[in-house]
């Protein structure tokens, strides 16, 4: 195997295994030489990735994505882009390249490691993201305000990289994406690691309190026991209730819950949906089931789908999904939302995705594909 590809696999696993950087299989990595780019396949997990988890593409053929005029219609456009990505694949197998392939392609360094670290997102999902970013990183980093993912984000990043390069006579090695994560680029893996360590160290300077403990204990509830009774759509679903100091901090009352009531990033939506449901606690089992039933059906009427996260007042969170593997993903992603919200207070407080941004993700075929892969 090519030495660079071996290093790419190693760095992918290191960050993939680290829950502070990669949550529920998010993030992607790439290596490129003059002619080819090797990028993580959509749905592959960094944690356990090997050679087969990467797709290699012709950089020459990928260039068409930068120059072609695509359809105005967003669904058609993403399909056209996807077809151009497919045409550029040189590796064999059925793997589909990461949706962020074109972004990796335009970052002019051999190695690119894109993750959604909790601490970076505490900054990226905060009200003062832009100002705090410029205070902490100055011209070392490029900050990109939230942009719908896919082709529109690609165009935005491309033009912002060009503007940055003209202004500072260098290609940015740190690209922060608001309500999303960070791209780190370098010539070597050693440098990638140094940059990441530096990013975390700078953010840490601003964080003045430790996160509440998140050692989770399971709890019993009639809601968990009778999950199928809450809604016909929950028939045969799995559910699990957990509590920790961190969860308690947000579940204690409705006002605290409001600081973790909506998704911060597109990945949150992929795993947990965009809105979480607060359920007042009743001591009486039957009353708990009846009132929750109504809340779930109101939620379904409002959003067109069922909730995956219930925040049970004073008790903890209940994750509901098709199978236990997906339930655990929901818990991992939602508790990460709680961490981001808690830490975002050091940067002005939480900033959620807005309704239009959420609707874009809900209708995005690419994310539906990832959702499907995450469950398998
Ligand atoms: Zn991402």
Could you give a quick summary of the protein structure above?
The chain has 376 residues and is of the alpha+beta class.
Could you explain the architecture of this structure?
The chain is an alpha+beta fold. The protein has two domains: 3-206, Class II aldolase/adducin N-terminal domain (L-fuculose-1-phosphate Aldolase), CATH 3.40.225; 217-375, Class II aldolase/adducin N-terminal domain (L-fuculose-1-phosphate Aldolase), CATH 3.40.225. It contains 18 helices and twelve strands. Helix 15 links the parallel strand 10 and strand 11. Helix 6 (118-124) crosses helix 16 and helix 14 (266-272) runs antiparallel to helix 16. The longest helix is centred in the C-terminal third of the chain and has 21 residues, at 324-344. The model has no long low-confidence stretch (mean pLDDT 94). Zinc ion binds next to loops.
Question: What order do the helices and strands come in, and which of them pair?
Answer:
Blueprint: H1 3-17, E1 28-32, E2 36-40, E3 54-58, H2 59-62, H3 64-67, H4 74-88, H5 101-106, E4 111-115, H6 118-124, H7 129-137, E5 141-144, H8 151-168, E6 174-177, E7 181-186, H9 189-206, E8 217-218, H10 222-225, H11 227-230, E9 238-243, H12 245-251, H13 254-257, H14 266-272, E10 277-279, H15 285-303, E11 309-312, E12 316-321, H16 324-344, H17 355-362, H18 365-375
Parallel strand pairs: 5-6, 10-11
Antiparallel strand pairs: 1-2, 1-4, 2-3, 4-7, 6-7, 8-9, 9-12, 11-12
This protein binds zinc ion.
């Amino acid at each position: 195997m090519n030495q660079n590809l071996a290093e790419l696999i190693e760095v992918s696993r290191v960050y993939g295994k680290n829950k502070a950087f990669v949550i529920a299989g998010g993030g992607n990595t790439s290596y490129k030489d003059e002619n080819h780019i090797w990028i993580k396949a959509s749905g592959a997990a960094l944690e356990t990735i090997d050679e087969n988890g990467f797709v290699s593409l012709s950089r020459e053929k990928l260039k068409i994505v930068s120059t072609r005029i695509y359809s105005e219609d967003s669904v058609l456009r993403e399909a056209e882009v996807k077809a151009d990505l497919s045409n550029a694949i040189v590796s064999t197998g059925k793997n589909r390249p990461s949706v962020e392939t074109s972004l990796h392609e335009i970052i002019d360094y051999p190695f690119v490691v894109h993750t959604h670290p909790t601490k970076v997102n505490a900054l990226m999902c905060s009200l003062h993201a832009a100002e705090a970013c410029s205070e902490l990183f100055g011209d070392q980093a490029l900050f990109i305000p939230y942009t719908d993912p896919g082709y529109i984000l690609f165009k935005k990043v491309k033009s912002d990289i060009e503007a940055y390069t003209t202004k500072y006579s260098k290609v940015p090695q740190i690209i922060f994406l608001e309500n999303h994560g960070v791209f780190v680029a370098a010539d070597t893996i050693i440098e990638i690691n140094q940059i990441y360590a530096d990013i975390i160290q700078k953010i840490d300077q601003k964080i003045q309190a430790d996160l509440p403990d998140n050692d989770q204990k399971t709890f019993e509830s009639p809601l968990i026991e009778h999950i199928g009774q809450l809604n016909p759509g929950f028939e045969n679903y799995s559910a699990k209730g957990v509590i920790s100091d961190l969860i308690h901090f947000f579940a204690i009352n409705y006002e605290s819950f409001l600081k973790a009531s909506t998704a911060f990033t597109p990945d949150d939506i992929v795993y947990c949906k965009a809105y979480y449901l607060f359920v007042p606690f009743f001591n009486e089992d039957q009353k708990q089931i009846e009132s929750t039933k109504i809340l779930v059906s109101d939620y379904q009427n409002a959003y067109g789908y069922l909730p995956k996260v219930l925040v049970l007042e004073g008790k903890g969170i209940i994750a509901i999904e098709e199978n236990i593997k997906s339930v655990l993903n929901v818990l991992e992603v939602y508790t990460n939302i709680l961490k981001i919200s808690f830490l975002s207070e050091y940067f002005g407080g939480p900033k959620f995705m807005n309704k239009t941004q959420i609707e874009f993700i809900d209708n995005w075929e690419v994310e539906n594909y990832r959702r499907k892969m995450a469950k398998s």
